[in-house]
Design a protein that fits this description.
transmembrane beta strand, elongated, coiled coil, alpha+beta, disordered N terminus, MdtP/NodT-like, about 475 residues, 4 strands, 10 helices, about 60% helix, about 10% strand, 4-stranded antiparallel β-sheet
């Protein structure tokens, strides 16, 4: 018996090298080899350091924003769920991989039974006892055609995908906190601008009212001055509300209240962000976690085809145990009490109404779906980076033009006010200059916010935000979680 078991084990070991998983071929990237060129784009620059390797502390210069990002990385619930999902998929991989090994269990049992006299062959009441101690293997499948290993590989690739999903969640969180913070600061600057403008409008209205009382200004001039005041009050209420809502949004992202010891924020006009070279589109395939996650999902679907193919072939499972059996406890481990059982089972699929073929077709379709999703993730990344590069060049031009426009409106306002005060021009010209200056200053803050958020989104699109310091490598472990035997 021992020789047959040994030969069976050797045969299983030889056949266990068989795998029906198709050879994996990475799909071609369905995008151009270069980012778009044209008037909206700046000339391409060589990337000395990829965005994914540039730590967020390097990219964001504002100490207040750095503290908020650090707080969010510790307390944000979405990031916490993503980290727990990694542990969950690691446990599922552990469960699936355990099927590659036999499950060995020990069992001890004892029983005593009284048989009444009328049921006994001897005509007398009898008491029988039985004690046993066994060590056995239950329904262990010999993985001759790689079905179990295919399922294990599928679980492993799903685990790797969850790691990339966690990385993607962190990158999105860093960008979301940065954008929420910048929006908060922009709305506070707009609120301060509105407060100052309202004070100027009220002073102008007071002077116009006094002029009206002495007959210099008309009732129409007074009414027009009042409309400016009321409009500024509307804007004041709106920005007051937006600042409060910005704080609430930021608190949700942080997962806790905004720290009371937050450093003084830098103005939007300061140098808040580092410059980012884009590099080449091919680098996105190694840097973007959503692309890497989609590729791991594709590999998982590829492995499931191997499991579906293996289901067409016979499967062999073994159940065996060995131990001792005795009618009394004292003789349980004496010589001659040994017992064993060996029950191999083979299952050969003969007729299943096309179920196995449909399962294989389904696995192939799922792979095709994952190929399309992988290609779509590449196209999305290419589009996001291209949009960011277009925004960079055009926002620089737009901001410079808007600054010049603000300066022109300031000159217009000063001249209109002087001419109105000395009686050369009407109040209508002065009010128009006030409104134009207020509108231009609002637009400048809004454009600066749009420029900053586009740079943050470009940093995210290039895979940045995973590291804290640039000296660290933006790598995710591609090793299987350790197998726990007990």
């Amino acid at each position: 018996m021992s020789k047959s078991l040994l030969s069976l084990a050797i045969t299983a070991a030889v056949l266990s090298g068989c795998s029906l998983i198709p050879d994996y071929q990475q799909p071609q990237a369905p995008v151009a080899a270069q980012y778009p060129q044209g008037p909206a784009y700046s000339p391409a620059e060589a990337a000395n350091q990829a965005a994914a390797e540039q730590g967020w502390r390097q990219f964001f210069h504002d100490p207040a924003l750095q503290q908020l990002i650090q707080t969010a990385l510790v307390n944000n619930r979405d990031l916490r769920v993503a980290a727990l999902n990694i542990d969950a998929y690691a446990a599922q991989y552990q469960i699936q991989r355990a099927d590659l090994f036999p499950a060995i269990s020990a069992n001890g049992s004892g029983s005593r039974q009284r048989t009444p006299a009328r049921m006994s062959q001897t005509g007398e009441a009898a008491i029988s006892s039985q004690y046993s101690a066994t060590l056995g293997v239950s329904a262990y499948e010999l993985d001759l055609f790689g079905r179990v290993r295919s399922l294990s590989e599928q679980a492993l690739q799903t685990y790797f995908s969850s790691e990339e999903a966690r990385r993607s969640t962190q990158i999105s969180l860093v960008a979301s906190v940065a954008n929420a913070y910048l929006t908060w600061q922009a709305d506070k600057e707009l609120l301060k601008l509105t407060q100052d403008t309202l004070a100027a409008y009220e002073e102008s209205y007071r002077l116009t009212s006094r002029s009206n009382e002495v007959g210099v200004a008309s009732a129409l001039d007074l009414s027009q001055a009042r409309t400016s005041v009321e409009n500024a009050r509307v804007q004041l209420a709106r920005y007051t509300r937006q600042v409060a809502q910005d704080e609430n949004s930021l608190t949700l992202l942080l997962g806790t209240s905004i720290p009371a010891n937050l450093p003084s924020p830098q103005p939007l006009s300061a140098d808040l962000l580092s410059e980012l070279p884009a590099g080449l589109p091919s680098e996105l395939l190694q840097r973007r976690p959503d692309i890497l996650a989609a590729e791991h999902n594709l590999k998982a679907a590829n492995a499931s085809i191997g499991a579906a193919r293996a289901a067409f072939f016979p499967s062999i499972s073994l159940t065996a145990n060995a131990g001792t059996l005795s009618p009394d406890m004292g003789g349980l481990f004496k010589g001659g009490s040994g017992t064993w059982s060996f029950a191999p089972q083979i299952n050969i699929p003969i007729f299943n109404a096309g179920s196995l073929r449909a399962s294989l077709d389904y696995s192939k379709i799922q792979k095709d779906i994952n190929v399309a999703q992988y290609e779509k993730s590449i196209q999305t990344a290419f589009q996001e980076v291209s949009d960011g590069l277009a925004a960079r060049q055009t926002y620089n031009q737009q901001l410079q033009a808007q600054r010049d426009f603000v300066n022109a409106n300031q000159d217009y306002y000063r001249l209109a006010e002087r001419r109105y005060r000395i009686g050369v021009d009407s109040n209508l010209t002065f009010l128009d200059a006030q409104r134009s200056l207020f509108s231009a200053q609002q637009a400048l803050i809004t454009d600066r916010l749009a420029q900053l958020t586009s740079e943050v989104n470009l940093y995210k699109a290039l895979g940045g935000g995973w590291n804290e310091q640039g000296s660290q490598k933006a790598e995710v472990s591609k090793e299987a979680p350790p197998l726990k035997l007990f």
